[in-house]
Description:
Elements: H1 9-29, H2 33-55
Amino acid sequence: MLSIFKRDPKKKLQQAYERKLQAAMEASRNGDMRANATLTEEANALLSKIQSLEKS
């Protein structure tokens, strides 16, 4: 019965993933390629977590 109040961890990770991609795009537009690479790498790590949640 209380399961309806639990947050979906996949949804939270998806939002964090989208924020990282947005920040990476803005860093790229500003010419900061090092920050772009770092943020993209972090976004890819979040994506792998999302995909592992989908499998289980």
